[in-house]
Amino acid sequence: MTFKQKIYKFLRWLEQFTGTDMIYLTHGAFWLTLEKVIEVLIGLGLMILFGRLVTKEVFGAYQYVLSITGLLSIFSLPGLDTALIRTVAKGNEKMLAVCFKEKNKWSLLGSFVLLLIAGWYFWHQNSFLGTCFIIVALFLPFINSFLLFSSFWQGKKRFDLQNKYLIMFNLLANLVLILFIIFTKKLTLIIFGYCLGFTLAGAIFYFLTVKKVADGKKEKETISFGKHLTLMSAVSTVAAYFDKIVLWHFLGPLAVATYYFAERPTAKMRELFPISTLALPKLSQRNIKEIKKGLWQKFLKLFLVAGSVIIVYVVLCPYFYKWLFPAYLNSVFYSQVLALCLIFMPFNLLGAALTAEMRKKELYVLSFVTPASKIILFLILIPFWGIWGIIFSIQASYLINSLLTLYFFRKI
Length: 412
Description:
single chain, mainly alpha, 17 helices, disordered N terminus
């Protein structure tokens, strides 16, 4: 018996002992984790470059432009990405091209709004931000649409190929951005480098994916479900970017830069545990009612992982910032408090079960109530408490979302 055969035999024994498909889990988790680790390392490198080479004012403005762009990405129908995973998992591979055309078409509305914003800034004699928004408007339809290649391979459960592509995509896209950061300190050129890098890299791996699409039927329900998911996530999308936008208008670019350096490390840590990403394709092929008890047991075990991660991060955080981001030491305590939100990670597993079951009513509630409460809290707390107002709002919204997710899961 070869070493590989022994490993598979051991995994099969674990499968019988734990009731978990260990080969699927190990294979999928390895590639997902590898991609996320590399993405985090790239993000860390970018933060070091921005922290040492770019002024806080320029970096704060850069984040403001990307936040407006991210908010308007709702016109790109992000729900189609999730809907594509589900339909490809059922063998409908030709829906990739259909979803691409739909996203590209609707993205033009986002570009139009960006041009209006650019015109407003030119009218108020701010040519730097006006130029930035024109640049983003030209690239927006392509940046989001090309990323469908990732959803396609996730739906096929080809986590190896999906994440190989994502690794090369991130390396290429960020290499272009890094070159612009190193050789120029101008906001407009950095924004152009960002758009150019991510569009070029996305195009390469999208068309590589298109060449491997097999024959299959088209499922009309996919587009409809994708639009439903987009509508569900509309308020959530606004909430995801609203903090930096409000902070910019009340406290300016320095506060935006400080908050970003506090929030980003914990956000990347959440991405290192792709619970929903790994679970959704598998759950889409199962009857959730039949495996509900097993899911509940896995959910409880995930709290041990989350708690351990929080403790390690809070202890090491001050040293981490001192070595890597000496200009942002005022972000340390903010980041430690934000790390407490990691305790809510296990609820992503229950949320994936609701998506797999296509529980539209419950998903609508989750996608509206919690982000809406976050936005309301932003508007109330940020003007008085600044960055602390954002942190308290985020923690409250995680708690609300987790309690609702638990309630809906128990009703399945």
